[in-house]
Design a protein that fits this description.
Length: about 240
């Protein structure tokens, strides 16, 4: 059955991924999800490789249409161990963020350190961020920067694909990557998807049509990454893997 709707904010459900009486669904991430995104990121990646809270705010402020999450609706719970956010379907529900894909558009065909960067308007250490008299990140007239999202770019830089550790191995990573590929393909926002991956994940991404372009120049987390690129002309259409 179709994985997704072409409507930008339409939720997607999958009957093959269920938990109790609720069914996970896919929707775009928003600024309201930042806390859950940060918690999930911190549970999955070691500190040198994590996306910071400031970068989540930036990416979900500037280009939220390029990031999605797989959510499980649950009754309100008191525990804070889960990456929770406010329910989008009904106020009586919360949502557990099971998996996420977070991306921006970049120039060139591979992800770079600049593509993962943070413009000064969003950087808490910069004067422009701290000084309210200067145009800040809430301004609609941001300065052009080689760092971060490049609206004219034709490459989607997939900066984070994360699955809640207790659900890894359950098919959620495959599911959200398929959903991401289909949504971005249907939206026609770019020509390709690029990401960086460690050796043990190269085979996983190849299953979805990504090509290993060799050792990346990215130095995040000490380097040692491989550039992976998937062109929408050659990435297979959605199918079960």
């Amino acid at each position: 059955m179709p994985l997704d709707s072409k409507a930008a904010n339409t939720s997607t459900t999958s009957p093959e991924l269920t938990s109790g009486q609720t069914t996970p669904y896919v929707r775009h991430l928003t600024l309201a999800d930042v806390d859950a995104c940060v918690k999930l990121e911190n549970e999955v990646f070691p500190p040198p490789e994590r996306c910071s809270r400031e970068k989540f705010i930036y990416r979900l402020r500037v280009c939220p249409e390029l990031s999605i999450g797989l959510f499980l609706p649950v009754p309100p719970v008191a525990t804070v161990e889960w990456p929770l956010t406010v329910g989008s379907l009904a106020p009586q529900f919360q949502e557990i963020l099971l998996a996420q894909t977070v991306s921006t558009k970049c120039v060139g065909t591979v992800v770079t350190d600049d593509a993962m960067g943070l413009p000064v308007e969003f950087d808490p250490s910069s004067e422009r961020y701290r000084n309210p008299k200067l145009p800040g990140w809430s301004s609609s007239n941001l300065y052009l920067s080689k760092l971060g999202h490049q609206e004219a770019g034709q490459t989607l830089g997939l900066h984070s694909l994360a699955v809640l550790p207790r659900y890894q191995g359950s098919g959620y990573g495959k599911f959200i990557l398929k959903a991401y590929i289909q949504r971005m393909r249907d939206a026609g926002v770019a020509k390709r998807i690029a990401l960086i991956a460690h050796d043990h994940l190269i085979k996983f991404y190849k299953r979805f049509g990504f090509i290993d372009m060799g050792v990346s120049k990215v130095v995040l987390g000490g380097g040692g990454w491989h550039d992976m690129v998937g062109d929408f002309k050659t990435i297979p259409p959605y199918s079960h893997h």
